[in-house]
Specification:
By secondary structure, this protein is of the alpha/beta class. It has one domain: Rossmann fold. The chain is 38% helix and 20% strand. Strands 2-1-3-4-5 form a five-stranded parallel β-sheet, sandwiched between helices. Strand 3, helix 3 and strand 4 form a beta-alpha-beta unit. The chain starts with a strand and ends with a helix.
Length: 120
């Protein structure tokens, strides 16, 4: 069976490296991104099973990429898990995200949420 693929957009290099190690240890094929530039195209080419998306604020500007993914033909079905430090991060589920993980995150919780979305 082929590995499940996860695309991670995280602007903080340290968090990106931690996520990379955790997800690779869990057996996922991981593609990392630090910028939103060209990300929709990367998603279309990579075809991830899940997208982890760093969302700083649940504002229209902050959720623009998340909403674009959910509106884009061919990729709108891919689960988006928002990573956020914002106190109102849970509202992202109402806007565009399939699930929300608050930072700092618990590794077991992170893995459980990802597995739940991969199997959905």
């Amino acid at each position: 069976m082929s590995k499940k693929k996860i695309l991670v957009l995280e602007k903080d290099e340290d968090i990106l490296q931690v996520l990379s190690h955790i997800l690779m240890d869990e057996g996922y094929d991981v593609k990392l991104a630090r910028s939103e530039k060209g990300l929709l195209q990367q998603i279309k080419l990579y075809c991830p099973d899940v997208i982890l998306l760093d969302i700083i604020r649940p504002t229209p500007e902050g959720t623009e990429l998340c909403r674009a993914i959910k509106a884009a033909e061919g990729i709108s079905h891919i689960p988006v898990i928002a990573l956020s430090t914002h106190t109102k991060a849970d509202t992202l589920k109402d806007v565009c995200a399939d699930d929300v993980i608050k930072k700092p995150f618990d590794v077991d919780f992170l893995v459980d949420i990802i597995e739940k979305q991969v199997m959905a």
